[in-house]
Amino acid sequence: FRLYKQMGEPLYCETMRLIVAAWEGKPDSFRASVLKGMMHFVELYHGEFNEERLLRALRNIHPVDIYRIGQDDPAKLRGWKKYVFPIYTAYNGKCRKDALPMKF
């Protein structure tokens, strides 16, 4: 509920729609770490990311892995940024074409 109040209804609803589309409502996809990472990713890159590319990338990573990678914190990021990082790297993959710049 705090994320909903903080980010606003439109962003929250868009994020939830993407989460459900990517992971088909699996309970692990609604963990706080996944919600934080996804909401901030959508906020930072709104209008820039390709939805189909994002959904393909998310389907290839388990929601718990977002939490685990964030906890390992390979990029030495703080707070919510450590949960955006695995989503960002999954989206960009190895492809430099149409890669998103790092904004966090």
Automatic annotation (TrEMBL):
Stored InterPro entries: DUF6551
Pfam families xref list: DUF6551
Name listed for the protein in its UniProt record: Uncharacterized protein
Organism: Faecalibacterium prausnitzii
